[in-house]
Amino acid sequence: MSDPVASKSGFLCMYMKNHPDTLVAYVKYFGKVEGNVFTAEMSNIDSKGMTLVYKLKSGQSNTTRVSFDPPLSGYEEVKPRLLSMKAEAQERLGMLKAPQITTFQIPRTAAIVGIVSFACFYFLSPPPPDTTFLSIPVTTMDAFFSPAHAFRDATGLGLSFRTSCAIFFGIHGAEALYTWSLCRQYVKGAIVTAAYIGCTMIFGYPMWIDLKKRVQRKRIDSVMKVE
To answer: Which residues of 2-41 are buried (b: 16+ CB within 10 A; e: fewer)?
Structure first.
């Protein structure tokens, strides 16, 4: 099966000649080339990556291969991927200001994770029979958790409430730390930052994945405005 991107390599290389600054950023950041890169050209591109020819101010010439992670699945992905990589490279190299997120939002996938988490606690870690909570009658508690007790009796599956909490908050705590690292770079405002970290503790990965997507969209928007 032919590579859908490689078949357009000649056209894409010619098009990218009009964007030398972008190619230099690719070479320096993704190619990890140190030194003063003077010029750069794209000599080949396919679904797995691109080959860049660059020249240093000292006169030395060389090539570097920049891989696409993940690989491109089709030609239609070339432009958004190159724009995204351009924004990331220029931001990391200090050529472009890092995007700032000033508002908070909860993605729809967070509700799904919340439901799944509740179901896991409900079926795997229900309180023992005859347990009361606050002013809720024992009969009401037993009736509410009777399906969970039936599930545990039938399957033999179950964890103590303390163990379930340790697993839940251990995983989400690590994710909250990662969210905090993202917020330090891209989120403006203590309240928005606290909201993202707090909701990551509750809902987990959907929060930081959505935050990264918002940052990526802002990056591409900033690149488009510059162009």
So the answer is: eebbeeebeebbeebeebeebbbbbbbbbbebeeebeebb
Q: In the chain, how many H helices and how many E strands?
A: 8, 3
pTM of the model: 0.68
pLDDT band at 81 (very low <50, low <70, confident <90, very high): very high
- Name residue, tokens 């799904």: 112
Please give the average per-residue pLDDT across 62-72, as a whole number. Answer: 93
pLDDT digits (tens, 9 = 90+) for 145-154: 999 999 999 9
CA 33 – CA 42 distance, rounded (Å): 15
Q: Which residues contact 98 (CB under 8 A, 6 or more apart)?
A: 91, 185, 186
Supply 62's token pair. 């060389």
Q: Are strands 61-67 and 49-56 parallel, antiparallel or unpaired?
A: antiparallel
Task: Give the N- to C-terminal CA distance of the chain in Å, as an integer.
Answer: 35
Helix (H) or strand (E) holding 37: strand 37-46
Q: Which residue intervals of 30-160 are DSSP H helices?
A: 78-92, 108-124, 138-155
Distance, in Å, from the CA atom of 103 to the CA atom of 189, rounded to the nearest integer, reads: 9
Place of tokens 């606690």: 121
- Work out the percent of the chain whose per-residue pLDDT is above 70: 97
User: Cα–chain-centroid distance for residue 5?
Assistant: 25
What is the DSSP secondary-structure string of 51-87?
EEEEEETTS-EEEEEEE-SSPPSSGGGHHHHHHHHHH
Whether residue 36 contacts residue 55, with contact meaning beta carbons closer than 8 Å, is answered with no
